[in-house]
């Protein structure tokens, strides 16, 4: 994400507009969020149950967050990973698909790197293929879309990084001194 | 992962130490290695670019050190931690990550002497200006803030004055100016006070002291809350392209993890004060018994402080757990379990000897307490600044420097309290003879 990233923001009069994420108004409104997604233990369960992840808005640019997540998932997890980007043929040596409907299977998680105003359309695409979970990445917030997705039976995670959350429970975050919250007398596993 | 919020004592023992994946070792293994093999070139490239988590070189990260880091982060209620080779280097990488030439720091004047010289001599030579605030009133800190200020710094329990920081008040002042509050909590430890719960953003420790607990091992640690918004005009470095890591953006790529990731990936890389794996193992093992040791330390401190206060050979006792201390109320609020076990007391002059001479003879007469320059050991430690660190000063210069000639600093250990008091009693008798 860059500093000019915009996010769809709901104003107090009920209307929505796109604001730069770094603007004072966006920050004020961030402090007034009311939607609360799955907690840490629920997010762990989502990641443990999933076998396949599609990254919508995946980028072949190594500086983009989606590239970090793609690299991490391919090298540090056992998920089947699919990249979705209509403008790319290949990302990280893997085929890039034009849309979710073109994937060879229905992914367990759809991980989304798209601007906030695109999230409702992505949710419709997720519903159309029947995937159970949409995971909207760190720094992207669209509360109306989250409520809409949940009303249609989707599990919604928003403004969280899938790489960081996975690493928290699988040793990566531990290696860098972060508190994983994991207390266990059983051996660590990948 | 059990669905449970584990208690402090459980986390002191278990946090950061999941049984080793490769061997099943139940105790924390010591990974005494400087570097780590890569699976292939793609793996190496991804680790170097911070695109995946993995060890590269022990100056940056080490599995034994990581266990100590996670354990302290868990006990402080922080997002994570970065460990260093000493408490002073923990402070240094924190200051160096936030302030550069032309910037400004607002700090308490009541700090450990090494912290004062780090700010007043070395960082000043690098162009970082520090204003030392003599009062403990948050309003006086607010008055010192300029548009160049990058942080506010204070100690939970000041060493050696025993002053208690008004962490909540300082956090309000800091946050009103988009500044982080950085608290050194070496003397308190997370058992007595967790500054993040009172609004602090970063907590530093000299782990050499109570965290390790046995006086064997140097180490430091920086803990961050993950709550402070670094992506503001005060800290443009968090929102700029980083060429040395493939063009990433700390805040954009790492969100709430930005401060600690940058502290490790830039400051440990460039400054280099890594904690050794063997030291991390000793410190992590020490932390397992922290709750029990700290309770014993403050229980003994109370008995010793009360005994000293009642003794006619003593002029004054500076322990905030005594009702006469100016920060007694503050200690009740921030340190309900006890106001730490490091404090000062002032011996009285006799008819024939100055208080400076009595202090000197007292120090030379102790037989159980150890005369040395450290705190936070299981052993009781004493030092007389006027005859050691400040020995070259005249009585007038001592008073001007705020070091009263008869002041003795004590770090009360966890021996039998009757034995500590018996030793202090016989040393006072010896010192006031004749």
Task: Please provide a written account of the structure.
The complex is a heterodimer of chains A (190) and B (434). By secondary structure, chain A is an alpha/beta fold. In chain A, 32% of the residues lie in helices and 19% in strands. Chain A is built from 7 helices and 9 strands, in the order E-E-H-H-E-H-E-E-E-E-H-E-H-E-H-H. In chain A, strand 8, helix 5 and strand 9 form a beta-alpha-beta unit. Chain A is globular, with a radius of gyration of 17 Å. The mean pLDDT of chain A is 86. Chain B folds into 2 domains: 280 residues, Aspartate Aminotransferase, domain 2 (3-Layer(aba) Sandwich); 142 residues, Aspartate Aminotransferase, domain 1 (Alpha-Beta Complex). Helices cover 38% and strands 14% of the residues of chain B. In chain B, the strands form 3 sheets. Chain B has a 7-stranded mixed sheet with strand order 1-7-6-5-4-2-3, with helices on both faces. In chain B, strands 10-11-14-13-12 form a 5-stranded mixed sheet. The model of chain B has no long low-confidence stretch (mean pLDDT 94).
């Amino acid at each position: 994400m860059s500093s000019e990233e915009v996010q769809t923001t709901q104003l107090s009069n009920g209307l929505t507009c796109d604001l730069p994420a770094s603007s004072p108004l966006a920050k004020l409104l961030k402090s007034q969020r009311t939607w609360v997604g799955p907690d840490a233990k629920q997010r762990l369960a989502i990641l443990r149950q999933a076998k396949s992840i599609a990254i919508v808005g995946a980028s072949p640019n190594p500086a983009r967050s989606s590239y970090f997540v793609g690299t991490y998932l391919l090298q540090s997890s056992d998920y089947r990973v699919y990249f979705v980007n209509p403008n790319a043929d290949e990302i990280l040596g893997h085929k890039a698909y034009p849309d979710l409907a073109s994937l060879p299977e229905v992914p367990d998680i759809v991980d989304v790197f798209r601007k906030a105003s695109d999230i409702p359309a992505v949710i419709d695409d997720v519903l159309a293929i029947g995937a159970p979970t949409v995971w909207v990445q760190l720094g992207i917030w669209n509360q109306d879309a989250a409520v809409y997705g949940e009303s249609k039976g989707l599990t919604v995670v928003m403004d969280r990084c899938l790489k960081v959350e996975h690493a928290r429970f699988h040793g990566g975050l531990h290696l860098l001194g972060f508190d994983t919250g994991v207390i266990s007398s059983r051996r660590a596993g990948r | 992962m059990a669905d449970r919020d584990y208690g402090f004592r459980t986390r002191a023992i278990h946090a950061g130490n999941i049984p080793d994946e490769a061997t099943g070792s139940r105790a924390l293994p010591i990974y005494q290695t400087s570097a780590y093999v890569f699976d292939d070139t793609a793996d190496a490239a991804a680790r170097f670019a911070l695109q995946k988590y993995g060890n590269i070189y022990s100056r940056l990260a080490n599995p034994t050190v990581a266990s100590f880091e996670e354990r302290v982060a868990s006990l402080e209620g922080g997002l994570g931690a970065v460990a260093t080779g000493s408490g002073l280097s923990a402070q240094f990488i924190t200051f160096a990550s936030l302030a550069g030439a032309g910037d400004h720091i607002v700090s308490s004047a009541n700090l450990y002497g090494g912290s004062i010289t780090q700010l007043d001599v070395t960082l000043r030579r690098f162009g970082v200006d520090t204003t030392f605030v003599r009062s403990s009133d948050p309003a006086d800190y607010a008055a010192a803030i300029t548009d160049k200020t990058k942080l506010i710094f204070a100690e939970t329990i000041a060493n050696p004055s025993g002053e208690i920081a008004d962490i909540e008040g300082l956090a309000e002042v800091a946050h009103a100016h988009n500044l982080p509050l950085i608290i050194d909590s070496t003397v308190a430890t997370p058992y007595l006070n967790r500054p993040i719960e009172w609004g602090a953003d970063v907590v530093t420790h000299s782990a050499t002291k109570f965290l390790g607990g046995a006086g064997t091992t140097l180490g430091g640690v920086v803990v961050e809350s993950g709550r402070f918004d670094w992506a503001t005009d005060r800290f443009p470095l968090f929102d700029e392209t980083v060429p040395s890591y493939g063009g990433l953006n700390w805040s954009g790529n790492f969100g709430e993890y930005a401060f600690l990731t940058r502290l490790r990936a830039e400051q440990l890389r460039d400054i280099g004060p890594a904690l050794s794996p063997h030291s991390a193992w000793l410190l992590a093992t020490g932390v397992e018994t922290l709750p029990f040791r700290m309770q014993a330390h403050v229980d003994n401190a109370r008995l010793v402080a009360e005994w000293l206060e009642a003794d006619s050979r003593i002029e004054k006792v500076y322990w905030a757990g005594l009702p006469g201390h100016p920060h007694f109320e503050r200690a009740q609020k921030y340190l309900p379990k006890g106001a730490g076990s490091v404090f000062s007391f002032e011996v009285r002059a006799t008819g024939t000897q100055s208080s400076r001479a009595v202090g000197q003879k007292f120090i030379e007469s102790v037989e159980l307490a150890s005369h040395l320059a450290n705190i936070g050991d299981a052993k009781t430690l004493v030092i007389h600044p006027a005859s050691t660190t400040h020995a070259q000063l005249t009585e007038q210069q001592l008073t001007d420097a705020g070091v009263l000639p008869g002041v003795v600093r004590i770090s009360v250990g966890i021996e039998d309290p009757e034995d500590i008091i018996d030793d202090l009693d016989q040393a006072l008798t010896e010192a006031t003879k004749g």
